Amino acid sequence: MFIHSSNVFEGTWMNKFILALSVFMASSTAAEAKTYREMFGSEPNLSPEYSAIVGSLDFKQGKVSLPAAQAQLDIPAEFYFLDPADTKKVLVDLWGNPPGSAEGHLGMVFPAKYAPDADKAWGSVIDYLKDGYVSDADALTTDFTELLAQLKEASAENNIEREKQGYDPITLVGWASPPHYDLATHTMHWARDLIFGKDPNAPHTLNYSVRILSREGVLQMNFVSGLEQLDEIKSGLPGVTGMVQFDAGQAYADFKEGDAVAAYGMAGLIAAGAGAKVAAKAGLLAVALAFLKKGGVLVVIAGAAAMRFFKGLLGRKEPPSA
Length: 322
Fold this sequence. Notes:
Elements: H1 5-29, E1 32-34, H2 36-40, H3 48-55, E2 59-66, E3 71-75, E4 79-82, H4 84-94, E5 107-111, E6 123-129, H5 144-164, E7 170-182, E8 187-196, E9 204-213, E10 218-226, H6 230-241, E11 244-246, H7 266-273, H8 285-289, H9 295-312
Antiparallel strand pairs: 1-2, 2-3, 3-11, 4-5, 5-6, 6-10, 7-8, 8-9, 9-10
C-alpha cells in the first residue's frame, strides 16, 4: 500500500502538536510553588534561625499528586500545600513537636491567610492508611460517650511513655466536636479538646480529625490549631475535603467483593486516630481489644497504631519573633 509523504508529515506534525499541548496543559495545572514573600507579601518577622526555616518553605497551589493515597489535591487560591519535607520543618523545627511525629506524612494544607508562623495559623496534616476497605456499618450505632471514656484512659496511660521520652503529657479533656459521619461523602470527622503540659490552666489545643474513606484505605486529615478556632475550621472544612479526588477506580463506591477489608470499623478508626490502639507494652492491650475483631490481627494493628499515636496528637509552640 502506498502512503503519500504529505500524510506522513501531517501525522508526525499532529503527534508532535498533541504531545506539546499535553505537556503545556500538564504544566499549566501542576502545583505552583511560591516563596514566603510571594505568598504573604512580606518577609517573616522572626529571629534569624526561624526566618531561615520559613524562608526555605515552598508554598504550593494547584494540582498536587498524592501517589501513596492514589489521589490528588486541587489546592485553590484560598489555601496552600507544603510537601513532606516542608511539613517536617513546620511540625518539628517551627512548632516544637517530637521528630517522630513528623515522619511519613504526605504533606500539610493551610489557609492562605495564615503563614505557618502566624499566631492564629492552623493546618491539616495529611496521611494515608492502606488498611483496606473500612466498613461504615457501625457509623450510626457507636456509643461515642463510652468511646470517649476509653480514650481518656488511653491518653492518661500514654502520658507515662511521653514523659519518659522527655515530652509534655497530653490531657484529653473531651470532644470539642463529637464524631459525625457523612454518608454521602463517606467522611468521618470529630475534634478533641487537648491540653499540652501539666498546667490545667494552659491554653487548650484543638485536634480536628477528618477521615475520607476510599476503596483501599483511609485518607487522614488532622487539623492542628487553638480551640478558639473550632468554628473557623468547621466553616473551612468543606473547602479542604473538597480538594480531594481519588484516582479512577479508587473511590469508596468502587469496592468489589474480594478487595482487602480492614480489621476494624468506624469506632476503631476513631480509636486509632486518638492513639488508643497502641502496643501491649504501653499497657493498653485491653483498650485495643474493644475495637479489633480478631486476636491474630491484634498485635499487628496495635503495634502500627503505636506510631500513629505520636503522629495524631500534635501541638504547636510559638516561634520567637525578631
